[in-house]
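User: I'm putting together a teaching handout on how multi-component assemblies are represented. Below are the sequence lines for each component of a complex, exactly as they appear in our records. Could you produce the 3D structure of the whole assembly as structure tokens, so the students can see both representations side by side? Please keep the chain order the same as the input.
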Amino acid sequence: MTAAASAHPGARRGWFLRRFAIAAVLAACALAVAISGNGLELIEGLLWADEVPRGSSSELYVAPNGSDRNPGTMARPFATVDRARRAVQALPEPWNRDVIVWLRAGTYELSSTLELSTGDSGKNGYRVIYQPYGYGTPRQETVALSGGTRVTGWSDPDGDGIYEARTPSGAFRQLYVNGQRATRARAPNADADDYREDAYVPIAHWDSPGYEYDADPNEGNRRIGLKAADVPASLLKLPASQLHRVELVVQRKWAQNRVRIDSLSPEGPLTYLVPMEPERALFGFGPPRIDGQWAHLENAFVLLDAPGEWFLDVDAQKVYYKPRPGEDMKAAVVATP
Ligand SMILES: [Ca+2]
Ligand SMILES: [Ca+2]
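Assistant: Of course. Below is the structure of the complete assembly, with chains in the same order as your input.
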């Protein structure tokens, strides 16, 4: 008898199949594994809104301080979601009730993708549900499934307050510190998810305003003008190899454009920016180009000057981060997606 079955001796009697369950679980878990943030909080929204009455289900427990040698009970929980998955799979058939896998509070770091297939489905019309402990109650616990890669070994050898570490993997565009998304080094300074007006600078001039279907003859020569004061002088001094990695992010109505920068040319009160190809050619698509649309510049070491900002030097495979107040880089949990 499996550990799970011994915890639930009634599990041998008449269980029935509800086929929709696995599709929902698969969709939810694919989403959760694809992100490294609060994955399970997303799962909740996709799982079943109706609560399963207590006593009508078999229950397994997983906790970050559990052990996969435990039987998966409340008092002696498993440590990994995959161990619970295997326990569910091993439950004797036919099922006669739903199975709930309760995840206790904490972050579950996945070393490989959590894969759910048809064999992990509910059986005999009964469901298998993975959800945070206390789901749907005020005492619901906060749970995250993280497929992130840890970044460790932070130090600040020159004492300037910017910490550095070797990166464990290639390029990445997001960094999480203690579960909070950090800000890719940018100007103007603002949080990554900040939508205040002063988090941006206005596009001062589009060479080619309007819609792409205006058949503008300048389409191929398009440049973007920013006020000279809105372009940090440090960017003008960057060697081309570094400048080409800097991105202009433009909020164009319902679209957001991200273009790498080919060149910057100060001309009087404006600094003109020529996007790299194919971004420049692709700028024709989407909503109209209107002077005053919001933009910011992102991804250069010289833009790393505010707490919470980070930068990846892909050539050196080093990542830099300026801690927020109160963050201790010796203890911080830092992860990339
Ligand atoms: Ca430093
Ligand atoms: Ca900055």
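A couple of points students might notice: Residues 185-187, 189, 303, 305-306, 309 surround calcium ion (ligand 2) (CB under 6 Å). Helices lie at 3-7, 20-34, 39-46, 81-89, 233-236, 240-243, 279-282.
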